[in-house]
Design a protein that fits this description.
The longest helix is centred in the N-terminal third of the chain and has 16 residues. The chain has 3 domains: 83 residues, no CATH class; 196 residues, Rossmann fold, CATH 3.40.50.450; 54 residues, Arc Repressor Mutant, subunit A, CATH 1.10.10. The chain has 16 helices and 12 strands. The chain is an alpha/beta fold.
Length: 408
């Protein structure tokens, strides 16, 4: 379906830019885009948010190019959802610079009423990053969570493919036109996504990528997501932009606990500073969203099949080869902690910061919830999270389901 107002909103993007915050201001000022188009220069000058240069561009831009783009979408079978449509996602509209319209190949899920997690990370993912991206997406999708990512190599495509393998719903947000051949190695994956969700973009179908399109694209990934999971992000990783945008938008941010390699420097730093919740299991994410998930199927996170991992392209590493053993059968038994285990574990003599040492001294051979640690020690939760991250990286404790911890 192509919105009846698509021509005029395309005209706005061609004149003022694809990522302009002025599209939302125009809509809120005039309500009907036809009224804005017909108002002309005299009325446009009364809009304080439009510069003389903006008005000149609007005046010179005709509707011919917009007609051509609509015709192209019809040829390709793409939909166009505009900012004034009823089915335009409210979560997307609520950000400062929502796209004037989005091009859609497939069926965009109801993003406002489904628990949605964005998964982001490096294109140069290691085995650890690829495996966990796939497994987190698979397990979350089994619980009815929609997975959103950017369709890039490495973490992104591992996440999409994990969701697809679970017969789940996933949305790919491109930093170029949907029909652009950029990252052709993922073309089949994108086609598969259209059968289980949607490939979307704010750029016309054949628009080629530009460097500044990708940071702009990230605001859409975070806006569509209830939470964003960072997997393997270096200190200057672009995925951290998505995390920052998610924080600005009031979303939850999670980070997979990694080792001390440069590959994890950015994500580990977010955990240490308390701006990302450390996770080791998909249940750590689900626990953050009370009453938003339900399923009869229980997924054993440690036993998810990795049979398709070798086919996942990673930047700078082709073909990718996973050496981990795989199991073709998903074990659906419930995950639980065996309370009958009575082995006593002793604390090690290690050099920790003050808070981490207090938390380590407190944790014992019995599982303890993070809220109890915070309450008993009178330490804010975000500082406890940072301490737990340090303890996990030093291999001193084990994270259990439900944000409980025990000595290792």
């Amino acid at each position: 379906m192509i919105s009846s107002n698509a021509k005029l909103w395309i005209w706005i993007t061609l004149a003022l830019g694809y990522n302009t915050p002025k599209a939302k201001k125009i809509y809120e000022r005039f309500t009907d885009i036809t009224n804005f188009y017909c108002a002309g220069k005299k009325e446009w000058r009364s809009c304080e948010f439009l510069s003389p240069n903006d008005i000149d561009k609007l005046n010179k831009c005709n509707l011919t190019d917009a007609d051509r783009i609509i015709k192209r979408c019809m040829e390709l079978g793409y939909s166009i959802i505009c900012i004034d449509d009823e089915n335009y996602p409210e979560c997307l509209y609520n950000i400062d610079s929502p796209p004037a319209l989005i091009y859609v190949n497939g069926t965009l899920p109801d993003m406002d009423n489904r628990l949605t997690i964005g998964i982001v990370g490096t294109r140069r993912a290691k085995d650890y990053g690829v495996n966990n991206s796939y497994k987190f997406a698979y397990a979350l999708a089994k619980y009815g969570v929609t997975i959103v990512s950017g369709g890039a190599l490495g973490v992104d495509c591992a996440s999409h493919r994990g969701a697809l393998k679970a017969d789940g719903v996933t949305v790919c947000v491109r930093g170029c036109g949907i029909n652009c051949r950029y990252l052709n190695e993922n073309s089949k994956m994108r086609q598969d996504i259209t059968k289980r969700g949607a490939v979307i973009s704010e750029y016309p179908p054949d628009e080629t990528p530009r460097s500044y399109y990708f940071p702009a694209r990230n605001r859409i990934i975070s806006a569509l997501s209830d939470g964003v999971l960072i997997i393997e992000a270096g200190a200057k990783s672009g995925s951290l932009i998505t995390a920052d945008l998610a924080i600005d938008q009031g979303k939850e941010v999670f980070a997979l606990v990694g080792n001390n390699s440069p590959q994890n420097e950015g994500s580990n730093e977010r955990i240490k500073e308390g701006t990302a919740i450390p996770v080791t299991d998909f249940l750590d994410i689900l626990m953050a969203f009370d009453n938003l998930y339900a399923t009869d199927e229980k997924v054993d996170f440690s036993n998810i099949s990795l049979e398709d991992i070798e086919a996942i392209p990673v930047k700078g590493k082709s073909p990718f080869r996973n050496k981990a053993k795989t199991n073709n059968n998903i074990n659906k038994k419930k995950i639980f902690f065996n309370k009958s285990k009575t082995e006593t574990k002793h604390k090690k003599d290690v050099n920790l910061n003050t808070t981490a040492q207090k938390v380590y001294n407190y944790i014992s051979n019995e599982p303890v919830h993070i809220d109890k640690i915070s309450s008993d020690l009178q330490i804010p939760v975000f500082k406890v999270l940072s301490a737990i991250s340090e303890l996990e990286m030093n291999n001193l404790i084990t994270a259990l389901q439900g944000r409980r911890y025990i000595l290792k």
